[in-house]
Design a protein that fits this description.
Blueprint lengths: L9 H23 L1 H11 L10 H17 L3 H25 L2 H19 L8
Length: about 130
């Protein structure tokens, strides 16, 4: 039997690796410096800094789910990524307006670029 070979666009591979790396870093910081890291992660997601350490495994799990969905070229992975980036980009716009910090501008640029790229390669995703 012939093996099914799926060619993943290099951009999707890069994005999936980026989210996997970010998730691994969050898990490491869950043990290294959970209070400071959870404070920062909560704030960049539009939540109060006192949200708690649960935000680290939650965002790490979400990152791994996004990475798997993109890597498998699944429709749910495409939609989950779009929804997450729309939320993250919207929060970044609000935080950029109130704080004017360059970090939020970078987050906004990342969100917009990835959403635009996903729109370009949308036909590569299966209907699963």
């Amino acid at each position: 039997m012939e093996k099914l070979r799926i060619n993943i666009p290099i951009g999707l591979l890069f994005i999936a690796i980026f989210y996997t790396f970010g998730a691994v870093v969050l898990v490491i910081f869950l043990f290294a410096d959970p209070i400071q890291t959870s404070n920062v992660i909560a704030k960049v997601h539009g939540l109060p800094g006192s949200t708690g350490n649960w935000i680290l495994p939650f965002i790490a799990g979400l990152g791994l789910l996004i990475a798997y969905g993109l890597f498998s070229l699944s429709r749910w992975g495409y939609l989950l990524t779009i929804l997450y980036l729309a939320y993250f980009g919207s929060v970044s716009v609000m935080l950029l307006r109130t704080h004017g910090d360059a970090v939020y501008l970078g987050n906004l640029i990342w969100s917009v670029l990835v959403i635009l790229y996903l729109a370009v390669v949308r036909k590569r995703f299966q209907a699963t």
